[in-house]
Design brief:
Elements lengths: L4 H9 L1 H27 L2 H18 L9 H25 L6 H4 L1
Helix pairs in contact: 1-2, 2-3, 2-4, 3-4
Length: about 110
Amino acid sequence: MELSSQQLNKIIQDERAKETFIEQLIKEYHQSITRLAFTYVKDQPLAEEVTQDVFLTCFHKIESFRNDSSIKTWLYRITINKSKDQLRKQKFIDLLPFQPDETIKK
């Protein structure tokens, strides 16, 4: 999905356009983002959580998209970063001397 600077500015300025754009991104990229997240976190529910976080981040940070690359590349970079964050968080929890219950762990 390619965006012109004019389209990007409209999305940034118009809340309804932003919501519609994010919905289009979810329809187009949800499956591939989830698959990419799963390759890192190796847990389907966690991959789904990462995917939701990616699209939420996209919604809040769309104005920081510089349009130097495709929106897909930007989403993939966010996905990789969020997945690595989850792995770091899991590694930290695993290092704790006590074992928190399962609800706190995720």
